[in-house]
Amino acid sequence: MKNLKVLLLLGAGLFLLSCASDDYYQRCISVSGKIAPVQKLAIVVPESTRLLEFAAAELQSMLEQSTGSTVPVQKSIGKEEVSLILGNNPLLQQAGLNLNRLPDEGYYIYRIGNRIFLAGRDSEECYPAQNRWGQYYMRGTLSAVYDFLERFVGARFYFPGEFGTVIPKRDAIYLPKHIAIIDGPDCTMRKYTNGNDCRWYDDKTYDGVQPNGLNILRLRLEERSIPFCHGLAYLQLPQRFAASNPEYFALTEDGRRLDGSVTTIEHPEQLCLSSGIREVAFQDARDYLSATTDAERSAAAQQRGFKYWSINVANPGFFCVMPNDYLYWCHCDKCQQVARGGRSYSEWTPEEQRNLNNALWGFTAEVAGRVQAAGIDGFVTQMAYGICKDIPDVDLPDNVLVQVAVKGLGQDRRENVEEDALIRRWCEKTGMKVALWTYPGKHGAKAAMKGIPVMLPVSIGEYLQDHKKYILGSYLEYETDYFLFNYLSYYVHAKVSWNLKTDVQAILAEHYQLMFAQAAPLFQEMFQTMEQLWTKRIVGHTIDTSKGPVPLLPTELELWSQIYTPQLLQDFNAKLDQAEKLTADNPDALKRVRFMREHLFAPIFAQAAEHDREQAAIAAWQVTVPGQVQLRPFKGEVTEVSTTVTIADTPAALQVTFHCQEPAIDKMVRKAEARDAEQIFRDSCVEVLINPSADRIHYYHFIVNADGLLYDARMASNEPGMDLSWNSSATAESQIGKDFWQVVLTLPKKDLGPLNPEGVPVNFARHRSLEPVVPENYYQWSPVSGRSFHAIERWGRMLLPR
């Protein structure tokens, strides 16, 4: 434990441990002497593995692309050629290069006469074409190969494929007489995700390697994952204990146990932290962390009652005890002494929130303390996220490692004062650096912003450097609909995470020049514009409220009419035309300009055109009152049940009748018990959202569940939250039949105010909430799906009698 502790106190990579120990090198980059062309070159792999074969193939291919000559791959060194010797082998050992003295995930690039060693610690079993998740395995030699190609061939790996891989043409490979490089990453954590809906620019694989995996390899991202997030959800606890120990699982208000069997709530596996689950968590952590080999860890899993340890809960040296996502607090008597049960996030008092925070961190501290008391090395990990984001009052043992969830990355960094202070306080609390989990991409509501790039290379690079004193690395949850929207951000994140002294502006200037040559200034201007739009106009958009400035995402209409305006898109097109003219005599640059036009900018233009078509459809989407409409699936194509909405008009009120087909009446969820129940939207319910003035801003929201319980609120698209203090005199009546249910909702006109005679924007919706959950459970009238039923710019119009 002492060595790992020093590691995290002094830096984020094992090479920095040398400050306190002679066992490890510091980063050493020594390149000098006469630079001369290599007349004869060979790639030597004395002891081959699938991983080294891949490394040799990458090296051979790129050397050939650069010089036009094929460099042979052979088993032994020759007499005359300069040998690029890959991996661990007797030649490396004879040279006195000890892999055990390398920094974590580090490597040698070392020249001794005509022998150049490219070597790091490697897996003997794993290789890229297996396409393992995250390419998690030791691959130091492959990283050395990519570094060699960057340093001495001039290769750059912006993204996989010919358009994103720059390999300068040369008459020969020029190498200096003296090369002594020992390198490793500054940041232990270096990873990203582009999400499940990310589209690539082609369907190619590269020697069997998926493109995202190849990008991970070439960017030299982390070789192992430190689990921080929801580890307890990956211990197969329901399979192990639901039958024998139901008390281990959170008790609901109606007496059920959340052991995964209740399918009507999100993340239905929740724990009672007042139960014997505390002992289970300790024993699992103890048995995993005390094992020293893969065989011992596998045996420990089987002894504990499951087949294997998920990488999401355990990795050598680390064990995560964070509970499942969307915390449900248990209703048992002991847990109720901490806070009220359920998910009453907005209703918990500050004292209850503090109690919960202390209870969750107290659980982690207990497990970590018992592991430490048992004399076992290793860290117990948890995220500072949600209810447990703030610093707890409980003492944390020095084997607790923390990851802090932050929003700041990608926003205006001057406004991140509170989060920055929190990061510093966590470092002070633990005495160590912390990892970051951040959400700069299309996370949550931002996912609906199709065709909008999240271009953040400058923001990401500067953010990491601003926080280098406090972080051991970062995970970018950086979803996107098109990989190319994010490629440059991933590149900068990797380069800065490897070396926190990286000159961000210099590598960006180099990127624009190498990729686009004469058109570099045009692309730099367009990319910078897109970054500023995201940080200042989209996630940086704030409104003034009684509580001060509050962030608010722009609507779809605002995105395409005020931010990515028709004029801006015309300007992009004009710059792309100009870029093609400027690079007409530079074939490599021209093909990249055209590639970017087709694969990065075309999706933006296409989405803008789609928005225009949708607006035309919405303008024509109307119902004349009295009238009737059918609801359609919110996202899918299959209408599993019909929902008919009939609208009638009287002098005093609008009357809206929902007739809901339901063949599974007995499985409907109906839990709300009072008017304006916060969670009523989780029931089987129907909704009316109406904008009487037609300003597409101010509207009213009505929900009625199958029992006839009513919720009403006043809302505005340019303000966060809802006004539940507003209560209308609306009434609701419900009827439940054998295979249908029906609601009649009466909306008094005196509550709605004047109704625009040119048409009233409106949306009708239904949540088909059943237990178990059905695939298609949301329906609405709007002709196009948006971020939610509340996408007011996508509502149709209701035409009332004049």
Q: Quick summary of this structure?
A:
Helix content is 30%, strand content 21%. With 802 residues, the chain is an alpha/beta fold.
Rounded to the nearest angstrom, the distance between the terminal CA atoms is 79 Å
Radius of gyration: 30 Å
Q: Quick one: CATH class of the largest domain?
A: Mainly Beta
Q: Which ranges are low-confidence, i.e. pLDDT below 50, for 5 or more consecutive residues?
A: 1-25, 544-549
The CATH topology assignment of the largest domain is Immunoglobulin-like
- Helix vs. strand class: alpha/beta
Number of domains: 5
Overall shape: it is: globular
Largest sheet: 8 strands, mixed
Helices, by number, come to 19
Query: Roughly what fraction of the amino acids lie in strands?
Result: 15-25%
Give the averaged pLDDT, no decimals.
92
| Helical fraction | 25-40%
Number of strands: 31
**Overall CATH architecture of the largest domain:** Sandwich
